[in-house]
Design a protein that fits this description.
99 residues, mainly alpha, 54% helix, 434 Repressor (Amino-terminal Domain)
């Protein structure tokens, strides 16, 4: 059996076959979740401490650190980072035209 390697698109969700717009949305959410998880680890917070800081329940923090991406919206993640004193900056760029 021959193993074929393809170069990724830069978005694992697109590579997994998600529709383009859904893949972009999932990528943003996953990037924000990674930042929240890094913040928890960098500050040495317990899940209970993180929950108090973010203004959510401890089970929600557990869902976050376990990667339950379907349970968090972009808005919720941005709000959580704001509660932690993190400024979320959005940048946009024009994509190639679709014919």
């Amino acid at each position: 059996m021959v193993t074929r390697i393809r170069k990724g698109s830069g978005n694992v969700f697109a590579d997994l076959g998600f529709h383009t717009e859904q893949a972009r949305h999932l990528r943003i959410r996953s990037d924000l979740m990674i930042e929240v998880s890094r913040l928890i680890k960098a500050r040495g917070l317990t899940q209970a401490e993180a929950a108090r800081m973010f203004g959510i329940s401890q089970p929600r923090v557990s869902d976050l650190v376990r990667g339950k991406i379907d349970r968090f919206s972009i808005d919720t993640l941005v709000t959580m980072l704001g509660h932690a004193g993190v400024e979320v900056v959005l940048s946009t760029r024009r994509r190639a035209r679709v014919a």
